[in-house]
TrEMBL record:
Domain AAA, residue spans: 20-150
Pfam families in UniProt: AAA_14, DUF4143
Boundaries of every DUF4143 domain copy: 197-359
SUPFAM superfamilies xref list: P-loop containing nucleoside triphosphate hydrolases
PANTHER family named among the record's database cross-references: AAA+ ATPASE DOMAIN-CONTAINING PROTEIN, ATPASE
The protein, known as: ATP-binding protein
Length: 417
């Protein structure tokens, strides 16, 4: 099965021959190698590049074990270049080679080679990797399958696809399995033996139990404001473990650097400033999150919120969680301050959107809860509620847009309605 990744392929196309190293990053098993060696190579060949001008090296293969030596790899690349025409280097699993930064920097000095690299451990995936190439690294961030990509390759109708995606997420390999047990075991296995192992080894962590428990707490709390102090208190009260705020903060950063989770800052909409406390954390793939909790906590609202957050990142938006304060008189006539939550404050250039995510909007109480946040925002940017189901977008009498999850996910310009 060939899963199309057209948006990422387009990013590689527009960066072709730009004189920089194209660095394909993202959580492990999200499809980086397939994008490079199958989809992008096919594009190069169709564009008229000769096959012998495409140099492919997969450093995790036993056949290329010798090329893990940096000097031998560099010489191999030089020997493959027989003329002055443009060559394209596709270098996979580059972390298998020591001193790979030096090799790549040396390649930058060769005028007729265009370099594309991927890596699959947390050392390479560290979010500061681009700085290793002295300002000449061009990063392309790859995510697990969006729902639109997943649905395009899924053998079934929307309802079945949505239920499957909510439970097992969008890692491409999961789509290849036909048996639910295989999907669950695959996700649980790679979480422990790939993602956690990478984080532990890269950061030389000695107490694996601590970060294991931290991941469980974060998985249980997607969509809920939290901070290292709260987590530390949870460790003390429920497990009798002293786990300092600083250590927790460091461990969360390690998980973010490995792209396993994302951190959403809280933004005071009226005050126009960021609030340091009580951030929200989301998993890069909801299937991994569910597997971590052994598929026990299946709260549809929180899972939907995580999926919407990931979709907004995939579309290139900057996403924060919002708060808005309002003052009103209580029954005793006293002025009180109330704080309303806005699920997402979404920015791209000069454009902004406010988004609420709701599983069900049928009750008057639920509508009041979602709309009150919007009513207290003192600007005219578009305000959208994404609800579960297939409802087409419509505007209520206050100008708020309500749209079903199906429309939001399957229309790339859905926020423009």
């Amino acid at each position: 099965m060939e899963i199309k990744r057209d948006a990422y392929l387009e990013q590689l196309k527009i960066r072709k021959d730009n004189g920089m190293i194209k660095i394909i990053t993202g959580i492990r098993r999200c499809g980086k190698s397939f994008l490079l060696f199958v989809l992008f190579k096919k594009y190069l060949l169709e564009s008229g590049v000769d096959n012998d001008h495409i140099i492919e090296i997969a450093l995790d293969g036993i056949e290329n074990e010798e090329l893990r030596d940096p000097k031998k790899c560099y010489q191999h690349i030089k020997d493959a270049m027989k003329d002055d025409q443009k060559y394209y280097l596709l270098l996979d699993e580059v972390q298998f080679m020591s001193r790979f930064e030096e090799v790549l920097n040396s390649l930058l000095r060769i005028s007729n080679i265009d370099v594309y690299v991927t890596g699959s451990n947390s050392k390479f995936l560290s979010s500061d990797i681009v700085t290793e190439f002295r300002g000449r690294g061009d990063e392309i961030r790859i995510y697990p399958l969006s729902f639109a990509e997943f649905y395009a390759a899924f053998d079934g109708d929307y309802d079945d696809a949505w239920e499957e995606y909510m439970i097992y997420g969008g890692l491409p390999q999961v789509l290849q399995f036909s048996v639910e047990r295989q999907k669950a075991e695959y996700l649980k296995n790679i979480f422990t033996n790939v993602y956690i192992k990478d984080v532990v080894e890269r950061n030389k962590l000695r107490n694996v139990d601590e970060i294991d428990t931290l991941v469980d707490i974060l998985a249980s709390a997607i969509g809920a404001p939290t901070n290292p102090t709260k987590i530390s208190n949870t460790f003390k009260s429920e497990r009798g473990i002293n786990y300092s705020n600083k250590t927790i903060s460091n461990h969360i950063d390690y998980l973010v650097e490995a792209f396993l989770i994302s951190k959403a800052d809280r933004y005071d909409i009226k005050g126009r400033k960021y609030v340091g406390a009580n951030l929200k954390y989301y998993f890069s793939d909801v299937g991994l999150r569910n597997a971590r909790l052994n598929f026990r906590q299946q709260e549809p609202t929180h899972i939907m919120e995580n999926i919407v957050y990931n979709e907004l990142l995939i579309r290139g938006y900057n996403v924060d969680v919002g708060i808005v304060e309002a003052y009103a008189k209580n029954d005793e006539g006293k002025t009180t301050r109330k704080q309303f939550e806005v699920d997402f404050v979404v920015n791209q250039g000069s454009q902004r959107y406010y988004i609420q995510v709701a599983y069900d909007m049928t009750s008057e109480e639920k509508q009041k809860q979602e709309f009150n946040s919007f009513r207290n925002i003192p600007d005219s940017f578009k305000k959208i509620v994404v609800v579960n189901g297939t409802k087409k977008p419509w505007r209520n009498e206050e100008g708020f847009v309500i749209m079903g999850m199906k429309y939001f996910l399957l229309n790339a310009d859905s926020l423009e309605f």
